[in-house]
Structure formats: C-alpha cells, structure tokens
Amino acid sequence: MKNLLFLVFFFLMGTFNAQGNLQFNQALVLESSAQTCTACWTVPAGKVWKVEQFSSNSEQPLLFYVNNKQLAFMHGNAYSTYSTAYWGARWGIKFPFWLPATATMGFGNMESSKNISFFVLEFNVIP
Questions:
Q1: Among the four 74, 75, 110, 127, which has the fewest Cβ within 10 Å?
Q2: Tens of pLDDT along 107-123?
Q3: Would you say the pTM of this structure is higher than 0.90?
C-alpha cells in the first residue's frame, strides 16, 4: 500500500509540474534586406525557437532586438570560421539561444543593399 501511495504521489507531482516536451518541427532561414526591423519575426504560439547562428554582409555592427528592446551589437560577415572576414557575434548573448512563444526578434543599423539571415530550429511544445 505504501508503494502504491508513493507512486501515485510522484505521478501527481509530475502531472502538476510538467512544462511540456519539445518536438522538432522545422528548420527556418529568416532573411531580410531592410535597414531596420526591430520586430521582423515572431515565434508562433505553441512553439519555441532555437536560434543557431546568423550571417550578414553588412560591414558595420548591427543592433539586435528581442521584443523591441535593443539587447546587443553583433558583427556580421559570418561566412565561415576560416574566412578572414569572419567576426561572428561579439555581444552578450551566445549562440545558440532560445526564444519563447510570442517573442519577437529583429535587428537595426544595416547598410542599404545588404541583407541578414538567421538560422533557426523551431520546436512544438507538447503538453
């Protein structure tokens, strides 16, 4: 009887505290050629994004935004780690990073006729 109560207790605790599981949905390449777009992309409801990396041919540092708030500067030219033009992200958030449902992501300060790409893995949140 003790064992049964013990199992029931832990089952109920797991049920009340469960936050859901992640199920891979799709890989995304989010691209823009706008000079400023502080909320270009929104994580859909019931999803989370794992932002793996970015690439830009802009020569100047870009501003990075989450939920319309500037978080950091980032240098583009992230073609490959072997290129002399490689800078990667020089800012406070390290790749990869996660964004929850309904969060927005954007950028600013890009030169005209340039572009930016973010490489994202999207997951479904399964309750």
A1: 127
A2: 999 989 999 999 999 99
A3: no
Sole residue written with tokens 């540092």: 61
Q: Per the domain annotation, does 83 fall within a domain?
A: yes
User: Do the Cβ atoms of 98 and 27 come closer than 8 Å?
Assistant: no
Q: Is residue 3 part of a domain?
A: no
What is the count of structural domains for the chain? 1
Q: Which bin fits 102, alpha (ψ -120 to 50), beta or left (φ > 0)?
A: left
Rounded to a whole number, what is the distance in angstroms from the first to the last CA of the chain?
30
Query: Does residue 101 form part of some domain?
Result: yes
Structure tokens given for 51: 């932002």
- 3-state DSSP assignment of residue 61: coil
